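Q: Two folds, back to back.
A: First:
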Amino acid sequence: MKKLTTITFLVFFMFNSFAAEFPTSARSEKAISMVESTLKEQLSNKGLRYGAPIFIRIFKDPGILEVWVESGDDTFIHFKNYEVCTFSGDLGPKLKEGDNQSPEGFYYVNASRLNPWSSYHLSFNLGFPNKYDRAHNRTGSALMVHGNCVSIGCYAMTDEYINEIYALAAAALKSGQPFFRVHSFPFKLDDEVLSKYRANQWYSFWLNLKEGYDYFNTHKQPPNVEVSSRKYTFEKK
């Protein structure tokens, strides 16, 4: 009985410590409360659970942010598309601080990268530069997905949309997902589309991105992403 009491206390202590450290604000709590019941109903209608792990894909063209939610069989089901209000620059990766270019690549967001006090309503940091970006000497900082529909290198959403995206992210992280992955692409990297860009300077880079894109489309699970010899590599989680 003493051992059980000790375990119960430790679990209680760990949960409350996490809750105390999870970033929150009156603004984020209000935003979440506004959309939570609707999201729960919409998810339930698709056989999905609010608080389940999420996965995000962003496509510069046609300007769509996709949210996928993990189902009972560990695969991810497409939940919803959100129109990107605006992003910066053109098709292609971010290269350096100040180039006003929104990044392309494979990123992840943990609780410490949420910003419920953002100057742009609500936001989360993509974690640019990642290991691949650093291997290519790419620089930049504070590359976000946020609200307020204004972008200087970020992916900007309307406040209405970021409220839902942020709520889904916060619920997943609070429920135990250690981080969620965000894959950012120039466009859908299907063969027939990518073939039109053979002469583009970023064609080989996009071919590398396509490996991760294809992995998810095949397995409906985002791959574990590593970097080797200055290239992205992909394997089962």
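A: Second:
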Amino acid sequence: MNRRDALTLGGAAALAATAAMRIPRPAMAQTAVQPTPAAPAGPFKQPPLPFKEDALAPTIGAETVALHYGKHHKAYFDALNKLAAGTPYEAMTLAEVVVKSATAKDAAVFNQAGQAWNHNLYWEQFTPGGPKAPQGRLADAIGESFGDQAALVKATTEAAGKVFGSGWVWLVADAGKLELVGTSNADSPFAHGGQPLFGIDVWEHAYYLDYQNRRADHVKAVLETLVNWSVVSDRLGA
């Protein structure tokens, strides 16, 4: 072997040794392309929350709001849009669907439309701001029907305890008088021509993460700490 060949072989060996010692360069990270969120299918759109998910804590925690609004309430709208597609319901407002499906005893549509409407009213009444106690005409009506705000809270808590299983408790205006009405599942006084002023959800998904089985404690805390009485008053027309 001549000197030139030896140098060439030596150089090749050196290069091979160097290559073996190299640490592989990490591959370039691939940026995932995020798909554009699809627009809600159908004519019925879930309104945005009028507050941040943690705004109702500790009475209603952020996790409860995320599940209640983002899963349960959303699911009612999604199901309603599927059921209404290609039917006369598709051209109606949500309120019209509630009343029409209740009258027609169309339970499949009513259960979804009723719960969608009920929850719209529910979240709106917790809009931050407003007085901590009823005022004006609303306060007068509560005084005439219950005595005072504390008596209303007590009566509502008791009414909530009488709702068997899942349902709602509503403060309803009827010819200027106020009364409490309990309903099961998706039903509401509105579906039958009534005028709800507030609605307290007593389905377990509304309170179980925060209060476990203490429904009465949850209802009392909601009325004493979360209700925006200006919203309730506006529904009365005060």
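Q: And?
A: The chain is about 50% helix and 10% strand.
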